[in-house]
Design goal:
This protein has about 450 residues and is of the alpha/beta class. The protein has four domains: about 60 residues, Beta Barrel (OB fold (Dihydrolipoamide Acetyltransferase, E2P)), CATH 2.40.50.100; about 150 residues, Rossmann fold, CATH 3.40.50.11540; about 70 residues, Roll (Ubiquitin-like (UB roll)); about 120 residues, Rossmann fold (3-Layer(aba) Sandwich). The chain contains eleven helices and 24 strands. Bound molecules: iron/sulfur cluster.
Length: about 450
Amino acid sequence: MRDLQILLRQHIGAPCKALVRAGDRVKKGTRIAEPTGLGANIFASMYGTVTKVTEEAVFIHPDEEQEEAFEPIPEGSKLEMVKAAGVVGMGGAGFPTGVKLGCDLNGGYILINAAECEPGLVHNIRQLEQGCEKVIRGVRYCMEISNAAKAIFAIKKKNEKAVEVLREALKEEPSMSIHLLPDIYPMGEERAVVRECLGIELEPDKLPSAAQAIVINVETISRVAEAIEERKPCFSKNLTVVGKLNGGTQPHVFMDVPVGTAVEDLIERAGGIDGVYGEIIMGGPFTGKATTLEAPITKTTGGIIVTIDLPDLHGAKVGLLVCACGGDEARMRDICAKMNGVVTSVARCKQAAEMKNGALKCERPGNCPGQAKNNLQFKKDGCEYIIIGNCSDCSNTVMGSAPKMKLKVFHQTDHVMRTIGHPLYRHLRVSKQVEQLPEYSR
Ligand code: SF4
């Protein structure tokens, strides 16, 4: 096994400060870095010896023999233990959970984000199917810490088995309920969860606390329970490996992978890459980024996806339609370059509002304002192709005008969807009957 590479920045906020030096022996659970501002403690994920410390990471050579036991965090109040354990939003956001839970909801809501919105990723749903008791205990702790009176599991209706398991488990939990979400991207967006569960539309710059709510991901909640019940530091990650792999394209779920494990090690555990491939993506098809075999997984890594080759556009002019819910402009330029296209025009959805930190947030997730104006711009700029990263509803509106203007559409997730046999994001058909699920068609 190659050395673990444990990044000093695995959360929103500044990088942590390393507390170890080359040559130091570490146990599983040894605190190896501490926050310098907003952030969370970072721990060794295996027994071993520190080989190198850089500005970005601590490298650890793992021992041949590994014990199950770990170095526990100090005892304290429940909130202190969540903070000490370095728990962060493990759905990808990376916001320190101890800070999030530190607010007084004054009888409000814990909203459990079980949308698992990125297509292809299944580890959160698998966790509910196989270990929902720990998640429910974690919800109780979150409610107690933040003074919430109710909790709602937000989960897509298509996950029938997990919904059934939850229904059964919540029979004795009068303060907890389930809200079924449609299978539309981005239902897992924080404000979309608030809107769906509570009927409150938050402005892009508002946090769920403005609706007396905290939105928290399934795995994050189970790490809260581990911190409080087992005094366990947050040093491992659940994730899905999927794509062009030997043995087929079905997803492989890995629970409790040591943080710092190389992408290549996990791909090998999933069967290895099947021949020629296009990209390796860390994260989901919409919001993930291209990565390398050497890159390490962090507390926020949700998926590793190996894709088929990308098409060759032979130098064609390409327009990029940047959306708040898909890849950023840099990611779309990266895809365009890999397809041998030339970026000739860039447009941003008018509902993609830029926040103070430069990030884009959708003003009304899942409700598209129409994209005909942007398509006209692409046409005027001489584009033959457009690359889009829009959500379900917005891809639908792009398709309302692009083909008529003879613009060929490539969604940034196309090569992933083709790899895993998922319908492409193009036309959305939502049934008028609430009880029926929406479908996509090619
Ligand atoms: S409305 Fe605009 S910003 Fe929001 S999801 Fe759709 S395309 Fe993206």
